[in-house]
């Protein structure tokens, strides 16, 4: 067990170092950091002096080491465009993105699982067919289009919901939240739904497929033969056994949700990290791009590692297989 | 081009045979499972029809579009923001209305779809070429090269394609300089979308290559001294490309959506030669002033195209892979 965790940890660190190298190379070789800092009148000598002062003339591996050491301490340098520390900018935008992602993940689970169970149990009812068709559309339509359609209907035509921004937010000092005000909640509905839709369809299809699979197994037949109520069989036995893969996929997908938030945040002008990242791509603001890349990579690696270790804890078969393979 | 997309034409891709042989091939192709299942599924037929119409409309745009949206002498700002024909202030010259610069929406959409499809095809082609090459090399040669390629694939697979495409796009523009954005946008887009898709091809091809390379015909080729590169290209490649076709079809839909998304986010195709995504982005600003057609019609076109290609891809996967049925 311990050796597996250590091995997995080392693997994750290796991946992070690789991503760090990528971010460093972007930082160091894409564009000239000095050019971004000085004006046109700066003489070549002054530029050279600045280069030496910034350590850009040191050996590359030393620079890389320094970059990683700073990144570990959440120091990503100063944004070219905004002239502010990148870590501060990201931190101020983090609550907006996390609130949006978490609410949409909860939405996807709360709507997706019942829909999946229903379509799994009543395979041939017309409602199931509607659910499946809608889910197909949900998967194939680009999410920005769904966002625009929602804005068109609910903001422009009906005027029920605001079309952009977070509404009124409450500042808790370390965190700003829109969940405590009515306008904040209203502003959250459409972006969260847009972001949730893809995951929702995924969860629904997964639960449906798993339910169909589980309902065919012997222990379900046995449970029925024992005369248990339909409710007990369907929900107590079948649903419970479908939930493990659902939880895994939802967990693994959480990184994707945060990445997809870039699109949703743009459509609804939601002031989160994704919007900041997109602006940095448009303006070639490398420090922000590098920092966002590292942050997202860290999140992905962390989630993957936790899921892997949990698997290992939960499923004893994996232990023997891994043991044999190594 | 569009003709070959039909399953009936797919088998007759090689037009080497003379009359009788061709007729025989055609008859065999028409009697195949693929055509049978195509006729069985109404949804697939509708999807194929929509795809065909849109592809034809896009390819033939310069000849059949009612206006040329890029010919500045024919567009007039006086015609700007004309609603569709059926609305009160509609103008019979503009079936779907005009945008803020007085360009006919229908023509602009046709030209936009042309660009969207072009980017889609080009990036799938690029991804497939790269992925197949790396997969072949990786599977056939094995060793350290194999593990390096596959580790890169593993890492890339954990990140969503949109993020990778955005990053590559940003870096490419930074390297090329912002000033060259207009000329290079197309290539940068193809490059970044293609580079975010190669992993699937590489993994699939690598897997089947590892199976094929131990078969007798490959061993025989090796014994008579055929060089490894030739074995890979002439012997292994034809036997591992089957599943690639399915991935490519499904990827085409994803690539079209990805292109639209990137263009919508403002890092894709510029406004001067708009693709569907760019049109939607530009039109979004007019949504609030009531000029809904500027963004909704390109949106519908994109939705129809993506949905139809997606359905075709799903159908093709089911037909070519009976295990999934």
Explain this structure.
The complex is a heterodimer of chains A (326) and B (325). Chain A has helices at 2-29, 33-37, 44-54, 60-72, 86-121, 126-140, 143-157, 182-215, 218-225, 230-267, 273-282, 286-314, 316-325, and strands at residues 170-171, 176-177. With 326 residues, chain A is mostly helical. In chain A, strand 1 (170-171) and strand 2 form a beta hairpin. The model of chain A is unreliable at 322-326 (pLDDT under 50). Chain B is an all-alpha fold and 325 residues long. Helices cover 70% and strands 0% of the residues of chain B. The chains are: A mainly alpha (326), B mainly alpha (325). The interface between A and B is large, with 43 and 38 residues.
Q: State the shape of chain A.
A: globular
Q: How many β-strands of chain A, per DSSP?
A: 2
- Give me the strand/helix succession of chain A: HHHHHHHEEHHHHHH
Sheet with the most strands, sense and barrel status of chain B: none
Radius of gyration of chain B: 23 Å
Structural class computed from helices and strand pairing of chain B: mainly alpha
Secondary structure: helix percent of chain B? over 70%
User: What characteristic shape of chain B results from the CA principal axes?
Assistant: globular
Strand content of chain A: under 5%
CA radius of gyration of chain A is 25 Å
In terms of DSSP E residues, the strand content of chain B is under 5%
Tell me the major beta sheet of chain A: 2 strands, antiparallel
Tell me the greatest interface: A-B, 43 and 38 residues
Total beta strand runs of chain B: 0
The class by helix and strand makeup of chain A works out as mainly alpha
Oligomer: heterodimer
* Element pattern of chain B in H and E: HHHHHHHHHHHHHHHH
Q: For the residues shown, what is the average pLDDT of chain A?
A: 80
Tally of alpha and pi helices of chain B: 16
Uncertain parts of chain A: 322-326
- The main sheet of chain A orders its strands as 1-2
